[in-house]
Structures are given as C-alpha cells and as structure tokens.
Specification:
The chain starts with a helix and ends with a helix. It is of the alpha/beta class. A hairpin with a 2-residue loop joins strand 4 and strand 5. It has helices at residues 2-12, 30-48, 61-70, 82-90, 111-114, 149-152, 171-178, 186-190, 193-204, 218-224, 235-245, 272-282, 285-291, 337-357, and strands spanning 22-27, 51-56, 77-81, 120-121, 124-137, 162-165, 210-213, 230-234, 249-264, 298-299, 333-334. Helix 2 packs antiparallel against helix 13 and helix 7 (171-178) crosses helix 9 (193-204). It has 14 helices and eleven strands. Strands 1, 2, 3, 4, 5, 6, 7, 8, 9, 10 and 11 form an eleven-stranded mixed sheet that branches.
C-alpha cells in the first residue's frame, strides 16, 4: 500500500514537472493493442495527464530500426519480442533502462527479483508471456478432435487446409515436435543441418494444404471464414475470438512455443522521460494483472499471477487460459532467443527458398 502510494504520487507529479504531455506507443494491433489501451494507457493518462497515441505494426522492430537508422524517431515506446529486444539493444538502437525505476512488488520484492526469466534486459522491460499454438474449428471435427501437435501435420486423419505464419520462427520448432522430437531436444537438433532438413521435410508433408498468414489478426479470421480447419496462431487472438465473438475455436496447447513481449524505448525517442514513466507504470504488478482481463497472455511478473482474475465478461477464469498454466506446459517449448539471434538470417533464407520452390 505504501509502495503504491509513493508510485502514484510520483506519477501524479509528471504532468507538472515539465515533461511531455503526450507519447506515442507502437504495438501489434488488434485485441492485443486494445488490451494495452484498457490496462495501461487509459489509467496512465487519467493519473498523469499524459496522452498516449497508439500506432500499430505487423512487427514493430522493423520500423523502429528504420527510424533510428534514419535519425527520424517518432515513437516513444515500442512493444517488441525478446530476441528483437536483445538484437536492437546490441546494435545500439534502444535506450538502456535502469531497473531501479521500476516499482517493487506489493510485498517489497525488488523488480529485479519479481520479473520472470527473460522479463528484464538492458534495454527492455517485459509485459507478457504469449504463445504460438494451434487452434481448430471444433465444428469440423465433432467426433475426433485433434489433441497433439502431431495431429496438426496429419492431413489424413484430420483433412483440411492449415494456416501457418509466413516465417520460420516457431514454425520449425513445431514441425520438429510434430515429428516426435521432445521439446527439450528441439534446439539441439535444429542447430544441425540434419535437424533443419527434418523440419522442412515435415513441412513438405502439408505444403499443398497451407494458407499463409502474416499478421496476428489473420489466423482467427482464416478459421472464421472457413478457409482453414486449423491454424497456428497467437493464443490470445484465439481466446478473444472464442470469448468475444463466440467462435467455435479450441486451442491445442501440446507443442506450444512461448516467448516474451517487452517494452523498449527507441534511441533518440522524442519524449524519453515520459516514456520511462509509462513503462514504469505499465509494468507494475497490478497493471500487468489487469491486462489479463482483456487477453489471455501471462503477466511477466511473479507477483501479478495471484491477481489475475476474471475476463471482462465477469465469468471466465483467466488463469486456465494462460500459456504458463501448469496444465498447458506439459509439452511446451520456450523460444530460444540465443538460437534465433544466431540463426534467424540463415533460416529465413532457407525458408524463403523453400517457399519459392513450392
């Protein structure tokens, strides 16, 4: 209570301390951006008087790199994936963030001890744990629904088109798990030529049944339009389509690939001080728990988990729908930022060549 009062008082002084009266936050759009507006931006503006403008991108890391490179930065806060946060920080494209500015947990635990692994880096502060899963339209499989990652690749037992993100990250890992590789062996195997060949061979088996998607909103739309019977997707997008729109979609957690999204500040951001205030506010214990009322992504702080309650409908318990729920983690794979920092360029080249060959 005392910590919360101190933080609230500090934030209340922002607008009168000569700080900017507005900031621009770039995120991923759709229900994800809306969850940030509701959980972070509206209460931040109410408490500080600082207006927050939202802009969206299919992958915010790309325009941020271009803006910093051109010396024309218009974004104050950007929401990016962990591997991009490390890479952009190493390239000097992000401002460093001192974790001392972040509020402690309600019991006084310092932020450095309260965030989950990979929840903090030199230039970024974690907000959520999200997952790439696959989902299916249960009206298409009323008697024998798919239940494993192997089922996604079995077009004989489960006929119909598959939706896949047009990128190798998470896809190659899921292909290997779909071919029987245990989650804890995936990256060791994928680090070898034989492992890469095996992943692409698995994709060859469904090549003629694939509909590709590129943005998070497209995967549930493909299912809704009946263009595919199952699709890889971000778990929060499927959850919201099922709960908010009443779509008959179910998630298969087996073989999920989970990772972090973090807030960062582009080098040369026009309103750096206000951006730091926003990040400190948004990544507080209660705010991260509040976002889970709007989308089923797990908070990046340990102290937030017990505060996760009901979805905005006032009925649905959110905890069972989180990627980090123990029941959903039985065959889960944490995305390796080390692996993708080292191999993304070569695997993207191989993936594009594979696409062209089709």
């Amino acid at each position: 209570m005392k910590t919360s009062l101190i933080l609230s008082t500090a934030l209340a002084l922002v607008a009168t301390a000569g700080m900017a009266d507005q900031i621009t936050v770039m995120s991923w759009g759709g229900t994800y951006s809306q969850s940030q507006v509701e959980a972070y931006q509206k209460p931040f503006t109410a408490q500080t008087g600082i207006t927050v403008t939202s802009v969206d991108s299919d992958n915010p890391a790309i325009p941020i790199k271009a803006q910093v490179g051109a010396g024309n930065v218009t974004i104050d806060v950007v929401d990016i994936e962990y591997a991009d946060a490390i890479r952009l920080c190493d390239e000097g494209l992000l401002e460093e963030i001192d974790p001392a500015i972040l509020p402690p947990a309600p019991d006084g635990t310092p932020a450095t001890e309260d965030f989950l692994p990979q929840g903090l880096s030199d230039c970024a502060v974690g907000s959520i744990v999200f997952s790439t899963v696959y989902a299916y339209d249960r009206t298409r499989f009323p008697d024998n629904p798919p239940s494993t990652i192997a089922d996604f690749f079995d077009t004989t037992a489960f006929p119909g088109k598959r939706g896949l993100k047009k990128a190798p990250k998470a896809l190659l890992e899921m292909a290997l798990m779909g071919d029987g590789v245990p989650a804890d062996q995936v990256y060791d195997l994928l680090s070898t030529p034989e492992g890469v060949d095996r992943a692409f061979a698995k994709l060859d088996g469904i090549r003629n049944d694939v509909v590709w998607w590129e943005t998070g909103a497209q995967a549930p739309q493909l299912l809704a339009d009946g263009e595919v019977v199952m699709s890889t997707a971000y778990n929060g997008r499927i959850f919201n389509a099922a709960l908010s729109e009443g779509r008959p979609f179910d998630i298969v957690w087996d073989g999920q690939v989970y990772e972090y999204n973090l807030f960062a500040i582009p080098k040369g951001a026009p309103n750096k001080d206000a951006a730091l205030e926003y990040i400190a506010f948004a990544t507080g214990t209660q705010r991260l728990a509040d976002q889970a009322r709007w989308i089923s992504y797990g908070p990046a702080r340990k102290s937030s988990a017990p505060l996760v309650g009901l979805y905005q409908d006032g009925k649905t318990e959110m905890a069972p729908n989180m990627p980090t729920n123990p029941d959903n983690m039985k065959n889960a794979l944490g995305s390796s930022y080390d692996f993708w920092v080292d191999h993304e360029a070569e695997l993207t080249e191989r993936f594009n060549a594979w696409l062209s060959a089709g």
